[in-house]
Design a protein that fits this description.
- Keywords: ATP-binding, Cell membrane, Membrane, Metal-binding, Nucleotide-binding, Translocase, Transmembrane, Transmembrane helix.
- Belongs to the cation transport ATPase (P-type) (TC 3.A.3) family. Type IB subfamily.
- It holds the Pfam family E1-E2_ATPase.
- This is P-type Zn(2+) transporter.
- By secondary structure, this protein is an alpha+beta fold.
- Among the domains are: about 55 residues, no CATH class; about 60 residues, Calcium-transporting ATPase, cytoplasmic transduction domain A, CATH 2.70.150; about 190 residues, HAD superfamily/HAD-like (Rossmann fold), CATH 3.40.50; about 120 residues, Calcium-transporting ATPase, cytoplasmic domain N, CATH 3.40.1110.
- It is about 55% helix and about 15% strand.
- It contains 26 helices and 20 strands.
- The strands form 3 sheets. Strands 1, 2, 3, 4, 5, 6 and 7 form a 7-stranded antiparallel beta sheet that branches. The protein has a 7-stranded mixed beta sheet with strand order 8-20-19-18-9-16-17, sandwiched between helices. It has a 6-stranded antiparallel beta sheet with strand order 10-15-14-13-12-11.
- The radius of gyration is 32 Å and the shape is elongated.
- The chain binds adenosine-5'-triphosphate and zinc ion (ZN).
- The site of zinc ion (ZN) has 7 residues, from helix 13.
Length: about 750
């Protein structure tokens, strides 16, 4: 029987030896060819009296590429895994028939060795390359013991368990990848294309190599390309991590997903929109699924910690208790299962989110969301609809309403701020026309400056005016007071040093938002606040209306981020929901960031989760899905540990066989898998709250001592009653630590 184990090793060694020698031979051949090439090049160069140019340096400025794992064709990988799964079934079959036809024994061995080949490669890699005995090594040892003890069928079954788990995980991953890619493609993406000297807005996918796109302040560069005109400061943080903006001008390369902070450039496109979309999707898939969840990390750590001692223990046990008991003992190791289950659980929940119109770009975000206790909302464009309405236009002597509106529209040109959209719409509705301006300067959080023949035009906030040394006339000041008291936003229009008019904008709060806030409280969110760049008046009004705990107004973009980090320093876990350029930094700092489809591209690029319907309605569902994921991950971990305990008993107390131990693993593995893949529907509101509270209580019971989880659970259960009482008196005034406007 030891003969069979020997045969396995001998064959593997033979195959590997053959491969290595082939590799060496190929290497030599390559060297020889390279030498010949260089030799010929030198001869030619000498003949032409020029020195051959050095080989081209690889570009260092390249955008990040998808890791190796994603460049493997998933179709082929799946086919390969399925092939080995089928082969292990065949092996089991042959070994089974061997009982009737003993001559089939050697055939079974050949089939076994073939099926074990990829597995042995992993084992070799672990031992030779990583110099570490990992779980693969341990289980391989168990399977060799099984084979050596003459349980051929069981050994085949052991192989099948390994291969089928891998191919099952790959299949689930493929399905989710497709789903996520589909949802991503629905994101509305438009770019400004230069056609015969004028700029037109076209869908991103229509872009072809050689086209010229125009990108101005506050927009994200949609493509890889070369700057052919203009100058811009570009934030490459998303790409290179460097926070210093880079100056780019004619001849420089720029990359997709970087943002223009100031300036305006024409870019010649290098890759078509479809190619760029494809590479974006592959990047997206890397970040959404190519990571390890906390629970997986924990599980892997435990598995790793247990591996060496178990190997040693197995070595000691083998001569004493024999192969069977040792193999059963090894099978009590909970192995790699969490490594398969955790990503599958995450994928499953990302897929459910996608089916409900939420694109989770980073799986970690979904995992972290259930620990969030503080949600910060941006106001304009997030809590209010992405297009307020121009309500009134105030004019100063010498100007007419239409003139003020026309100036404002001229300045707003291609800005994609909700205020800009509202003004442009009003101007269009009034059938005004205005020239296309190229050199407008947008100062985020303040407003826009344009140099016209008649003077310097400024359109923006009151602070923008006073900061530029422009006073507010009394008549306008009175109008501002009234507008703010009813919750409206006022935009100043100034020419040179004088305010010439103002525009009053009426926001419309997204429907059912106060209901949503109440819903989130039921789901365990303790603290909710508005963080807005707008004035105190309208911000307070909305905060009261919606029953927020706090509000921050006149907040500049960097300050939004400070608010997030301050809260985090107090131990809060913060989710930031925003739509604008002014939210991007805060979103980067937040534990979880969410944006809405149709918001500024910088915001949707930074956000880890995008609400594809363009509104907040699905937020409750999202939190629920996150809690569900957390519960599933915990259950997965339990279901991987349970069979281990049972098998440990099997080895020392019940004395059962190897097959029994594998069946225990198989049974629990199947249960865990079914649990992870179980389809689930989103329940109604009351049911959601109950399920989250009970999950948290359950966890608290088990996790006594781990303060963070226990605290979170506390808050959820307390909030149950708390949330109810709050909802009944939601009209009560908010006690508001107000952040004073920065001067
Ligand atoms: N495109 C613009 N046109 C005119 N004024 C602007 C523009 N962008 C910003 N402003 C002025 O600067 C202020 C701050 O703008 P910012 O974009 O930081 O926040 P916001 O849109 O008002 O509110 P929120 O932060 O809630 O989205 C605005 O209230 C407005 O007065
Ligand atoms: Zn906003």
């Amino acid at each position: 029987m030891l003969f069979s184990v020997g045969a396995v090793f001998a064959t593997y060694a033979g195959v590997r030896l053959f491969e290595e020698r082939k590799k060496v031979r190929e290497e030599k051949l390559r060297e020889r060819r390279a030498f010949a090439r260089e030799f010929h090049a030198r001869c030619r160069a000498r003949a032409a009296k020029v020195v051959p140019s050095p080989p081209e340096e690889p570009e260092t400025d390249q955008p990040v590429e998808a890791p190796q794992s994603l460049r493997v064709d998933p179709q082929k990988e799946l086919a390969r895994l399925e092939h080995y799964t089928n082969m292990s079934i065949a092996t089991m079959g042959i070994f089974g028939l061997r009982l009737l036809v003993p001559a089939l024994g050697p055939v079974g061995m050949v089939s076994y060795i073939y099926t074990a080949m990829p597995y042995m490669r992993d084992v070799e890699k672990s031992l030779v390359k990583d110099r570490k005995a990992n779980v693969d090594v341990l289980f391989f040892l168990a399977d060799m013991l099984t084979l050596g003890s003459g349980s051929y069928f069981t050994a085949g079954f052991g192989l099948w368990l390994i291969h089928s788990a891998k191919s099952g995980a790959q299949k689930a991953k493929d399905n989710s990848d497709k789903m996520i890619a589909d949802v991503f493609e629905q994101l509305p993406q438009k770019v400004w294309l230069l056609v015969d000297g004028s700029e037109i807005e076209v869908p991103f996918k229509q872009i072809r190599p050689g086209d010229t796109v125009v990108v101005a302040t506050g927009q994200v560069i949609p493509v890889d390309g070369i700057v052919t005109e203009g100058l811009a400061a570009i934030d490459q943080r998303a790409l290179t991590g460097e926070s210093q903006p880079a100056e780019k001008t004619v001849g420089d390369r720029v990359f997709a997903n970087t943002a223009v902070i100031t300036g305006r450039v024409l870019i010649m496109v290098e890759k078509s929109g479809e190619d760029t979309t494809a590479s974006r999707i592959s990047q997206l898939l890397v970040s959404s699924v190519g990571y390890k969840s906390d629970i997986q990390l924990k599980g892997e750590k435990w598995a790793d910690l247990a591996t060496q001692p178990m190997l040693i223990a197995a070595g000691v046990m083998l001569p004493v208790v024999g192969a069977v008991t040792t193999a059963v003992f090894i099978n009590s190791h909970f192995g790699n299962r969490i490594r398969l289950l955790a990503p599958m659980a995450t994928l499953r929940h990302i897929t459910v989110a996608a089916q409900h119109g939420m694109l989770v770009k980073d799986g970690r975000a979904l995992e972290k969301l259930c620990h969030v206790d503080t949600v910060l909302f941006d106001k304009t464009g997030t809590l209010t609809s992405d297009e307020p309405e121009v309500l009134r236009i105030f004019t100063c002597p010498g100007y007419e309403e239409q003139g003020i509106l026309r100036y404002a529209a001229m300045a707003e040109g291609k800005v994609s701020h909700p205020i800009a959209r509202a003004i442009l719409k009003a101007a269009m509705d009034a059938h005004l026309s205005w020239p296309d301006l190229e050199d407008s300067q947008y100062k985020v959080g303040y407003g826009i400056t344009v140099e016209l023949e008649e003077g310097v035009l400024r359109v923006g906030s009151i602070r923008f005016m006073t900061g530029s040394g422009i006073g507010i006339p009394q008549a306008i000041d009175a109008a501002i007071g009234h507008a703010h008291s009813v919750g409206n936003t006022m935009i100043m229009v100034a020419m040179d040093r004088e305010v010439i008019g103002a525009i009053e904008l009426q926001p419309s709060v997204r429907p059912d938002t106060s209901e949503l806030i109440r819903h989130l409280r039921e789901l365990g969110i303790r603290h909710m606040a508005i963080v807005s760049g707008d004035h105190g008046g309208p911000t307070r009004k909305l905060a009261e209306e919606l029953g927020m705990d706090e509000y921050f107004h006149d907040i500049l973009p960097e300050q939004k981020a400070d608010i997030v980090t301050n809260l985090q320093a107090k131990g809060r876990s913060v989710c930031f929901i925003g739509d604008g350029i002014n939210d991007a930094i805060a979103m980067r700092e937040a534990d979880v960031s969410i944006s809405l489809a149709g918001a500024n591209t910088i915001a949707t690029d930074v956000a880890e989760i995008i609400m594809m319907d363009g509104d907040l309605a699905g937020l409750g569902d999202l939190f629920y899905i996150s809690h569900k994921l957390d519960q599933t991950l915990h259950r997965s971990l339990e279901l991987t540990i349970a069979p281990g305990v049972l098998n440990l008993g099997g080895a020392f107390v019940f004395h059962y066989g190897i097959m029994a131990s594998l069946l225990v693993n198989f049974g629990f593995g199947g249960l865990a898998l079914a649990d992870v893949l179980k389809p689930f529907k989103l329940p109604d509101r009351a049911e959601m709250a109950k399920s989250i509270a009970s999950g948290a209580r359950g966890q608290r019971r088990k996790k006594m001592g781990i303060t963070r989880v226990a605290n979170a659970a506390d808050s959820v259960t307390n909030e149950d009653e708390d949330g109810d009482s709050r909802s009944s008196e939601s009209a009560a005034p908010v006690t508001t630590p107000i952040v004073q406007p920065a001067s």
